[in-house]
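Predict the 3D structure for this chain.
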Amino acid sequence: MLQETPFTSLPNDILEALPTIGLSAPEWDIVAVAIRQTIGFHRQEHPLSISFLTKATRHHRTVVQRAIAGLRKRGILVQVSPPTFGGAAVYQVSNPPLWSVPLEQPVPLEQPVVGECTSQARLSVRARPATVAQRKKEERNNKRKPAEEAHAPAAREPDQAVQRFEQAFKKHRTIPYAHKTGDFVKLAELRKRLGIAGDAIPDGWNNALENYFTSPQGCYTLADFVVRYDTFLLTSLDRYGKPAGNGGRSKPDLVGLSRESGALVLTREQFEELEAKQKRAREIYHQALGHKAPAAKDPVPSGEEDHHGDIKALVDKVGKGM
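Done. Predicted structure below.
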């Protein structure tokens, strides 16, 4: 026969409803303490402080606070009066008809070790139906997504001029090119100055690239190439930074360049041929005068000024016939 011990007279409706409400372990502990402090002492309500519940249930303070919040949301625990500076909040256990209807699958509890202060503690929080404000927000987001997708910018095609520079860099330097600050800014400025589209390739780009990479440089960058594009469009440079002449060129279309720039562009062969004609014309000029060709700084012998007009005409005639 069981010995008679003090007991708490618990109403049947509360005892039958508690197993069906789906409480978590901390919530069960809080309800048990609340029932003991109210119904157990034949009281309707009683002050229950956080520190008291923490000590009674041996749960962390944060776990206790969240358990109380969950019980209050379901209407099981009712706060009669809020905590004051000198006293704890007053609670009472309500009747089961006032409790909210439990949902099917509560989130399982991840309970921390007793006495451990951690923010990883998780209570079982029941999935609740979306509120009216949440549903309206979701509807707005769903309407906004198709419009955003329709106005989304298309994938940008690679810049052909930049790609050709990268290919030329890898061809001459054997390593991939790493873009530097100002590359694309300088390229945009060049296109603006030439009056071409933002993705167009400037005329003579490949020839200028060949001249640039055949010129001795300490560092090869797209920005440096674009800044001196006018120079490399016509010629390469030697190690002193001087024009190397057409011998270092990649044989561009000289006729086209002459028409565009309005300047006379000669190949090395054409220049040597013209120089030979001028030398032959000077020899004929001095043979007609009857003496050797003087040095560049020698004065013209006296008495020869009268023949200059006739000899000049002869030289022009000879030069045109050669």
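The first helix runs from residue 12 to 17.
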